[in-house]
Amino acid sequence: MNQMLTILPQRELFLVIIGAVTYVALFVVTWQNSRRKVLMLQERLDKVRAMQEVADVEANRQKIEELEKLISKLGSENTMLRLELEEKKAKLDYVNTMARIESEKREHAEGDIFGSTIYLKIQRLVAEGKTMGEQDWRQLAMLVDGVYTGFSEKLYSLYKMSSYDYHVCLLVKVHILPKDIALLTSHSKESVSTSRSRMYQKVFGKKGSAKDWDDFLLSL
């Protein structure tokens, strides 16, 4: 190797060194980008799992009862421990209360949505072959976030989607048919389908159907 380097003209030797350095730099950049993508995907999947977690109300209730018994047995000399246990109990009480509220809201969700002014307007727009306006989208977003707490926030926490993709998600959430979504957003049915499958791949890091994305949205 040393003999080869000695017989290479100085200019060619310089180009070889530059080429080697460039190759190493490209390798490092590619590796870093790949690692960053893997970490971002893992972070998104962790968020998805957290979104889909359902509080085990019964298990929490049993823990609360156990904590109440422990607290009642503690004397006045165990102030710090009692406060810690009361804090844990308060957190479990809060989780169960929120889970109960969300459960009750979901039980009435379809009635609240299908009887809403904006939903009835959407049906009228579909019948008339018209698209939705900015005010319509705002009203729909308020309805969905009111019935499904934090729905929009959860979506945007996964990645910064376009307004079109967001509008598609809102309509899927209120059970609007794909052909009607196409009409309301002034896009083709193929575009609506592609958008949904693309969002699934973006979030989950693997190919999925439009229905796979719909199922995910309906689980939130």
Explain the overall architecture.
This protein has 2 domains: 57-107; 110-219, no CATH class. It is 82% helix and 0% strand. It is mainly alpha-helical. Helix 7 (134-147) crosses helix 9 (163-173) and helix 11 crosses helix 12 (210-219). It contains 12 helices and no strands. It has helices spanning 2-7, 10-52, 57-73, 79-107, 109-114, 117-128, 134-147, 151-158, 163-173, 178-185, 189-204, 210-219.
Structural class, judged by helices and strands? mainly alpha
What summary fits the major beta sheet?
Answer: none
Q: Outline, from the CA principal axes?
A: flat
Strand content: under 5%
The gyration radius over C-alpha positions equals 28 Å
Q: How many strand elements?
A: 0
How confident overall, as mean pLDDT? 82
Low-pLDDT stretches are: none
List the main descriptive attributes of the protein structure presented here:
mainly alpha; 2 domains; 220 residues; single chain; 12 helices
